[in-house]
Amino acid sequence: MFCTKCGEQLNDNAKFCVKCGAAVEIKMPQQQQIPITQMQPNQNYAYQTNQTMPSTPKKPWSKLAKLILIEAILVIALGIFLNNNINKYTSPEFAAQQYFDAFMAGDAKSAANLVELSESEFVQKSNFETIVKKYYKKDSKVVKRALKKSNEDKKSGKITYEISYSLRDEDGDIDDFNSMNVTLVKTGKKYLFWDNWKIDMNTFVSDEITIETRCNSKVTIDGKELSDKYITKNDEDWDEKEYTIPHMLEGTYSVTVSNDIYEDYSFTIDAEANDDNTYYNRSTPYKKEVCENVMNTATKDFTTLWNGLSSHKELSELTLSSEQHSEAEVDYDYGYMLNKIATDDSDGITKISMDSVNVSTTAGAGNTIEVKFTTTLNYTEITTGWFSGERTKEKKSSDYEAELTYIYEDGKWKLYRSNIYDYL
């Protein structure tokens, strides 16, 4: 190394020239040059530097770090893939499509698993097969379908889709004009984070179904007797009882109304979605055996009453086959007729006989049966002359009608009203 001022050869590590005392300029690497200001000997000095520090060399990634990075990227990609697919398969559109496909395939069990239903006695998933049977067309196949959102209720969170579809029958003919409305409702979460959509089965549920019948009747639906909890009216004075079923799953139900004294009456309920209906049953006839029993009782009572009249006995002396109702007016009617019977001291009729008696029954209001007796009455009429005072006897005959009315109360028939009086 040489001094740059005087040219004197210097040691490689010399800082000052031994000849002229000039500071030796040290050449540093290009990225780290440190200029040294020339200073006079024996003076205080300080280094002034404009130094650029060398960059730290990057340490290469280890195999483990690279593996972790790759795994993280894969996990993120998988998460995005799964999220997109789960969003698809948990969407209301997908639920509606699944339900439609199961429904149109006649798969009631799979369709029922996709529905949300507030169950009650007449609204149950197990009865969902009746809905499928009603709409399923066995001989037709869906060849095209299109789904369109028709309504979204922000308040309830329900979404309704209209599904338009085409059917091809067994002859190959295609019917393009078919549609089904499907309403969905959120029922919590699925896989912790995604909404769980179910078909709102209330779109297949009717409103109130009312059955009006007589008080002593019982109602069975599909073989099961309706409990008293459905009774909303029971008016014995008017013989009216009313059953009200809040909701029924859409479909056809077999109903039978039975009664101790009336013929059974059967009919069907066609429950329609969001529709109410009232069914009446108060006009069925009495059972044949009931009418026969009442007729036999009435005939005995009619005979007893006329035998009592012929013998001029009071009603209290007679024993009737039936109990009298608390509001019966038999005493008044019988007493009026008793005054028409002749005695030793009074005029009237005597020696009474009847031709064959025709007996018929008529259904009256409020669990009553009217028994009518029609005959020809033969008798002898005794009268006393106004002026002569003589008593004369005259044989007569006339058409005669009488009625005895019975009412069914506390499980038995009671004599309710009599009309045996006639202006002879």
Would you write up a description of this structure?
The chain has 424 residues and is an alpha+beta fold. The chain has 4 domains: 52 residues, no CATH class; 117 residues, Roll (Nuclear Transport Factor 2, Chain: A); 72 residues, Sandwich (Immunoglobulin-like); 132 residues, Nuclear Transport Factor 2, Chain: A (Roll). It has 6 helices and 19 strands. Strand 9 and strand 10 form a beta hairpin. The longest helix is centred in the N-terminal third of the chain and has 27 residues.
Please write out the topology.
Layout: H1 63-89, H2 92-104, H3 108-112, E1 115-116, H4 129-135, E2 140-153, E3 158-169, E4 174-190, E5 194-200, E6 209-213, E7 218-221, E8 224-225, E9 231-235, E10 240-245, E11 251-258, E12 265-271, E13 277-280, H5 288-310, E14 323-324, H6 330-338, E15 348-354, E16 358-364, E17 368-384, E18 391-409, E19 412-419
Parallel strand pairs: 1-5, 6-13, 14-19
Antiparallel strand pairs: 2-3, 3-4, 4-5, 6-10, 7-8, 7-11, 9-10, 11-12, 15-17, 16-17, 17-18, 18-19
